[in-house]
């Protein structure tokens, strides 16, 4: 199984890094690397994340890292990271 990062998710990573780097560039890089590692590790146990409550579809799942939700879609041969955002924000379909 392979992991694919959507353009949206990659843009989310850049935005998160930019935001954190305003205060601490080194911390920003470490945190982004951690998010990427969490995302890439999903391939080993793709069903470990919970079903996203806003969708209630078994293929759309999420894991949490600190205050961030990593939302992904599971298919037969791959995991696609769809979006990453702060957990306190509302999740809308158009965010995918």
In summary, what is this structure?
With 96 residues, the protein is of the alpha+beta class. Helices cover 33% and strands 29% of the residues.
Keywords:
96 residues; alpha+beta; five-stranded mixed β-sheet; 33% helix; YaeB-like fold
Tell me about this structure.
The protein has 96 residues and is of the alpha+beta class. It has a single domain, classed as RelE-like (YaeB-like fold), CATH 3.30.2310.20. It has two helices and five strands. It has helices at 7-21, 25-41; strands at 2-5, 50-51, 60-65, 68-74, 78-86. The mean pLDDT is 92.
> Would you identify the CATH architecture?
2-Layer Sandwich
Question: Fraction of residues in helices?
Answer: 25-40%
**How many angstroms separate the termini?**
21 Å
Q: State the order of secondary-structure elements, H for helix, E for strand.
A: EHHEEEE
> Which fold does the CATH topology refer to?
YaeB-like fold
Strand content: 25-35%
* CATH H-level superfamily: RelE-like
Profile the largest sheet: 5 strands, mixed
Strand order of the largest sheet: 1-5-4-3-2
- The low-confidence runs, each spanning 5 or more residues with pLDDT under 50, are none
């Amino acid at each position: 199984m392979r992991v694919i990062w959507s353009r949206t998710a990659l843009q989310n990573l850049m935005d998160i890094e930019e935001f954190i780097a305003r205060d601490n560039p080194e911390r920003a890089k470490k945190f982004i690397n951690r998010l990427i590692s969490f995302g890439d590790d999903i391939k080993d146990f793709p069903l470990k994340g919970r079903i996203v409550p806003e969708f209630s579809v078994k293929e759309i799942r999420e894991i949490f890292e600190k205050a961030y939700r990593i939302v992904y879609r599971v298919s037969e041969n791959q995991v696609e990271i769809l979006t990453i955002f702060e957990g306190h924000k509302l999740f809308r379909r158009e965010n995918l």
